[in-house]
Amino acid sequence: MFFPASSHSRIQLAGIVLLPLCVGAAANPYESDFATWGNRRVLSRPVTAISAGMMNSAALQDDGTVVQWGNNWSDENIVPNDLDSVVAISSGSYHMLALRANGTMAAWGRGDNDQTKVPQNLGPAKAIAAGSYHSVALLMDGTLALWGDTTSGKTAVPKNMGTIVQISAGIEHTLALNSAGKVFAWGGNPQGQATVPTGIGKVKAIAAGRMHSMALLETGKVVTWGDDFARRSDPNPTAPDITDTLHTVKAIAAGYGHCIALLANGTVVGWGGTPQGQTKIPTGLTNVLAIAAGHDHSMALKEDGSVVAWGWNAWGQTTIPAGMTGVKSVAAHFSHTVVLKNDGTVVAWGYVEGGNSPILAPAGLKNVTQIAAGENFTVALKDNGEAVAWGDTATGLVKVPVGTGKVKFVAATRTDIFCMLADGSVVKWTPVWSGSTSATEVAVANSENWKLFAAANGGALGIKENGGLVGWPDAEIPNTVGAVAAVAGGYSHVLALKQSGDLVGWGDTSETSVGVARIPAGTGKATAVAAGQLHSLVLLENGSLVSWGYDRQHQTQIPKGLGKIKSIFAGGWLSGAILDRTVVTDIDSRGSQKLSGLRKGVYSVEVRNLSGELAWAGSAAWSGTSWKMGFDRAGAWILLARGPDGVVARRVAIVH
User: Fold this and answer.
1) Is pLDDT above 70 for 280?
2) pLDDT confidence tier of residue 392, bands split at 50, 70 and 90
3) Pairwise CA distance, residues 555 & 572, whole Å
4) Which residues 6+ apart lie within 8 Å of 635 measured at CB?
5) Is the N or C terminus of the chain more exposed, i.e. has fewer CB atoms within 10 Å?
6) Are 153 and 161 in contact (CB under 8 A)?
C-alpha cells in the first residue's frame, strides 16, 4: 500500500521530531542506556529505510533489525524475535512484510485473509509490497507471488507483463512496473485506480494508495489517477492539479488519501487527504533521502539519518523513539513509555486514550525525582514535593487534587494514582469522567521513614525501614512474606523480593491460566522485581533475567546480548532493563587506546589511586581513541568521568 524507501548504508541518525533527544552534542544517539521488549521498541542503530502503515510506523536499522511503534491492534508491531538480516520492509493496513538478505520473507500482524501466510516453496524474492489485506512479492525469477484477500481480483496477476522491476499494493488494487517503464494495474477499481492512463510516458516509480495511484515519470513529472480527492491540493473539484507544477520529483509515496513527493533538491511536498496535517510538511525539512506515507501520517528519512514524521499522532505513530542515555528510571504501561533522566527531565512517547491527549511531558517540567505510569496517564514527583500529572484529560486523573500536600512518593495502578504524603498519610484519586476529581484519604500511616512505595491492583504498598510490608486499603499481604527489600504489583498479582533474595508471589498463582504470581521452580536468588499487567520480570543475583506469565506480545522473551543490567521495569505488555555501560580497559600514560562505548566529548574527570585517594581532577577530552588530559603519572589508577548526560563512572587502569 505504501511506497517502500530505498536502503542506504551506515546512515547516522541526528535529529528526531516530537521526542527530544537529550544527549550531549557529541553523543551517539543510538547508545541507549536501556533496552525494551514487548509492545514498544527503541531505535538503537542507524536507520536505513522507513515504512508507514494504517496508524503505525516502522524503521529498518543498519544491522538488519526492524523497529516499530504506533498502533498495535492486530499485533502488527510485534516484530518476530528471530527476525534478522532484513533488507526491505513494507507496511500494510494491519500487517507487515519483511524481506531478508537471502530472499526469504516474514509476515506478521493481522492475518484474517491469510495475508501473513507466506506461501511455501516460493523461490527467493527481491521486492515486497503489503496492501490492506493482501501481500505481493517479486521473485528473483521475475514472477509475482500474491496471497491474502482474493476478492476484486487483486491477486489475479495479468499475463505478458514482461520483466517486472517494481511493485506496490493498495487497499483493493496492485501496481507493477516493468523494465520498459510500463505500468500494469489490477484489482478493485471503483475510483479508476486500476485504470492506467494511456500515453503517460515512461515510468520509473509507482505507488498505490487507498483508491488512487501515482507514477513518477523519467522526466521527473508525477501522474496520478483514481480518487480525485487524493489528486488535488484542495478537495474543491475546481482546484488546479498540483502535479502540473511538479517537474523535478525523485520519489513518491501514496497514503490512504494523500500523496507526498520528494524533490530533487531534497525537499518534500504533499497534497490531498483529510485535514490531519499529513501533507503539512514540517518547516525547514531538507536533505531528505526517502519518504513513506501511512493512513493519515507521513515520514521522511534524511541524509544524516534522522527520521521525521508528521500528521495524525493518536497512536504515537509520528513520535520516533530514539536512543536514550543518562537514564535514571523508566515507567511504562500499555501504550506509552516514560523516561526519567539523571538531570531531572522527563521524556515520553506512545499513545493514550482520548484522541489528542498529551503524552509528551509538560513543557518546562524539571527537577523530577520519581515517575509512575497508568493506562492513560503519567504522574511525576518534583524535588519540592509537588506532584504533576498528565494524559487523558477526560478522566480527571491529570488534575492533582487541591490540598494534596507535600508528596514523598508517587505510584500508579492501571486506573488510580496513589501518593504518600510527608506526614505518612496515603492519598488516592481515581477517574471521574466529568473531568474533575477529588482526593480520597485511604489511610494514615505512622510518620516513620518509609523506604519504598508501590501500587498493586488492590491499592498501595509501603516498605518500612525494617523491611515490613504494609498495604492500603485493600492490598492483601500474606503472613509469610517477612522482611521485604522490594515489591512490584500488576493487574492481578504482587511480587515481593525478600531481604534474603528469595521471591514471594501472591494473586494469580493458577497453574491452568497465566499463573503470573507463581514463581518458577529453580529461579534462584534475585536482586530486583518488576510486574507488567499480566507478566513478571526478575533480575537474578547472577545478572541474568527471568520472566513468565502472559506472552502475547513477547514481553517475557528476553533479548540476547543485553550485557550488564542495573535495574528492570515493566508495565502493560512491556518489559525493559536499564543497562550498565561502565567501561573497563587499560590505557597507557597518554591514554592512547581504543575505548569502545565511551562517547566523544569533554568530561569532568577525577583520577584516584586504588585506595580511592584523589590524585588529579580537571577537564579531559576523549576523541574516541585517546584522552587528552593534564595527568601523566605511572601506576594503576581509577578514572571517574562525568559526561553531559549525567554521572558516568568509568573504571580505567592507567598502566605504563
Assistant:
1) yes
2) confident
3) 9
4) 609, 654, 655, 656
5) C
6) no
Q: Which three cell numbers stand for residue 326?
A: 543518562
Mean pLDDT of 402-415: 84
Instruction: Determine how β-strand 652-654 pairs with β-strand 585-587.
Output: parallel
Distance CA 198, CA 625 (A): 61
Q: In terms of Cα–Cα distance, which of 6, 58, 3, 1 is closest to 288?
A: 6
Round to whole Å and give the CA distance between 654 and 656: 7
Rounded Cα distance between 481 and 380, Å, is 30
pLDDT tens digits, 302-339: 887 667 888 876 656 666 555 567 788 888 887 778 88
Q: Are 242 and 271 in contact (CB under 8 A)?
A: yes
Strand partners, 270: 260
C-alpha cell at 458: 488492590
Please report which helix (H) or strand (E) contains residue 628, including its range: strand 627-628
Question: Which SS3 state, helix, strand or coil, does residue 215 take?
Answer: strand
Calpha distance 351→337 (Å, rounded): 9
Q: How far apart are CA 116 and CA 93, in angstroms?
A: 12
Q: Which of 185, 161, 170 is nearest to 54 (CA)?
A: 170
The residue with cell 490540598 is 403
- Whether the per-residue pLDDT at 590 is higher than 60: the answer is no
For the stretch 180-222, pLDDT in tens is 999 999 999 999 999 999 999 999 999 999 899 999 999 999 9
Question: What is the Cα–Cα distance from 373 to 468, expressed in whole angstroms?
Answer: 25
Give the three-class secondary structure for 244. helix
More confident residue, 245 or 343: 343
649: its cell numbers? 563512572
- What three-state secondary structure class fits 245? helix
**CA-wise closest residue to 536 among 504, 498, 564:** 504
Angle in degrees, CA 168, 272, 304, rounded to 5: 65
User: Which residue in this structure is represented by grid cell 473531568?
Assistant: 435
Instruction: Kindly report whether the global pTM for this prediction surpasses the value 0.70.
Output: no
363 burial via Cβ count (<10 Å: 0-12, 13-18, 19+): exposed
Q: Print burial letters for 187-196: b (CB count within 10 Å at least 16), e (below 16).
A: bbbebbbbeb
For the cut 90, the answer to whether the pLDDT of residue 100 exceeds it is yes
**Mean pLDDT, rounded, for 250-263:** 92
Mean pLDDT of 288-307: 85
Max intra-chain CA distance, the chain: 84
User: If DSSP states are collapsed to H, E and C, what string results for 342-366?
Assistant: CCCCEEEEECCCCCCCCCCCCCCCC
Instruction: Tell me the pairing of strands 288-293 and 297-302.
Output: antiparallel
What's the confidence (pLDDT) of residue 153? 87
| CB-CB contact of 359 with 349 (8 Å) | yes
Answer whether 426's CB lies under 8 Å from 419's CB: yes
- The letter for the amino acid at 507 is G
Answer for the pair 12, 304: CB distance below 8 angstroms, yes or no: yes
